[in-house]
Fold this sequence. Notes:
The structure is a single chain. By secondary structure, the protein is mainly α. It has a single domain, classed as Up-down Bundle (Four Helix Bundle (Hemerythrin (Met), subunit A)). The chain has helices at residues 3-26, 29-33, 43-62, 79-98, 102-106, 123-149, 158-162; strands at 108-112, 118-122. The mean pLDDT is 96.
Amino acid sequence: MGIDHVRQFADYNHWANRRLYATALAMPDESYRRPTGVFFGSLHGTLNHLLLTDRVWLKRLTGEGEHPDRLDAILFDDRKALARARMAEDARLIDVVGRYSEDDLRGSISYQTMSGAPHRQELGQILLHLFNHQTHHRGHAHACCSIVTGEAPPSLDLLQFQRGAPAPELGF
């Protein structure tokens, strides 16, 4: 994976999050919070988890920002506040990735796991995990949207992004 791929994934992540959050913000609160059987319980739990893990990784990579201590923590109960924080974290991720070079991707990063165990890993591999993790749990969130609304949410397919499908402005 090269730097152009990493940057594309950062941009795609923001695009997909805008599409997903537009759907989440439009649904009734009881639907948004309804347990659906996904790993983090509901759309609300899943979206909080995704923001949380991005914050964990960005703290590890940059030394800046928050590092929540539980993977199931609810960072924001209010979904508009969660959406604003998500968009800010997406912008931060795009900025951080935009400063990396090909050589940086081959370098190693030392960090501690959530349990405190020391670890060292190649930056490119960390970023692969970060973007794959986002896609994995965004798939859960996407499923939550169709389960609670009975309708198909907007496509989050990478090809749609590459072909220029629009992502809505969230209006805040």
